[in-house]
Amino acid sequence: MPKRTDSEYLAFVHGRVKGLRRTAYLLCGDSHQADDIVQETLTKLYTRWPGIGHVENVDAYVNTMLVRVFLDERRRGWWKVALLDWLPDRGPAPHVPVDDQSVVRTALMQLPPRQRAVVVLRYLCDLPVKEVAHHLGCSEGTVKSQCAHALDKLRLVFDSAALDRL
Questions:
Q1: Which positions ≥6 away from 87 have C-beta within 8 Å?
Q2: pTM score, two decimals?
Q3: Which residue numbers delimit the RNA polymerase sigma-70 region domain (predicted)?
Q4: How far from each other are the two terminal CA atoms of the chain, in whole angstroms?
Q5: Cα 110 from Cα 154, distance rounded (Å)
Q6: Which residues does 62 contact at the CB level (< 8 Å), separation at least 6?
Q7: What is the C-alpha to C-alpha distance for residues 160 and 166, in angstroms, rounded to an integer?
Q8: Domains, the chain, ranges and CATH?
């Protein structure tokens, strides 16, 4: 089993960082937090890099790490809540047209973290149920039920025609 080198790590990261950041952003909905998730994932990957010569699909390995970093962050995050002395923007006024991306982002943020992870991996990253289950460390049945619950919640936000369009 050959050891992987630092130059291989750098080449891997340069080729994948945009996709990892996109997935992290879809999971958390905040670009700064997405950067933190990717940074933590890549740091963990670097510490394990020399020993993962036996891993056949490094992309799947890293995606699994990314999702787990996101879920771990959600589990331990209640004390990280920042109290603001101003009210955040509540979105555009009702008469202002809203693009589909912001609607999808807002809808995703209303889902619990596990359901959001399932929807992002299944539909936005286009992974099969089996692979999503592997990434999340759960059964295929759990992925299907989490997906069904998430889609039910999303249907409350979107009418069925808009959901079919997405």
A1: none
A2: 0.57
A3: 20-79
A4: 44
A5: 9
A6: 16, 20, 41, 45
A7: 10
A8: 1-79 (1.10.1740), 98-166 (1.10.10.10)
Report the pLDDT value the prediction gives residue 156, as an integer from 0 to 100: 81
Sign of the dihedral defined by the CA atoms of residues 12, 15, 21, 27, in that order? negative
- Please tell me the distance from the alpha carbon of residue 166 to that of residue 156, in angstroms, as a whole number: 15
The pLDDT-based confidence of 79 (bands split at 50, 70, 90) is low
Dihedral sign (CA 126, 59, 57, 15): positive
Question: Which of these, 92, 118, 103, lies nearest to 157 by C-alpha position?
Answer: 103
Residue 163 identity: L
d(CA 158, CA 27): 19
Phi-psi bin for 138: left (phi > 0), alpha (psi -120 to 50), beta?
beta
The rounded distance, in Å, linking the Cα atoms of 42 and 25 is: 15
Residue range 7-60, pLDDT digits in tens: 889 999 999 999 999 999 999 888 999 999 999 999 999 998 888 878 888 899
The letter for the amino acid at 131 is E
Q: Are 65 and 44 in contact (CB under 8 A)?
A: yes
- Rounded to 5 degrees, what are φ and ψ at 4? -85, 145
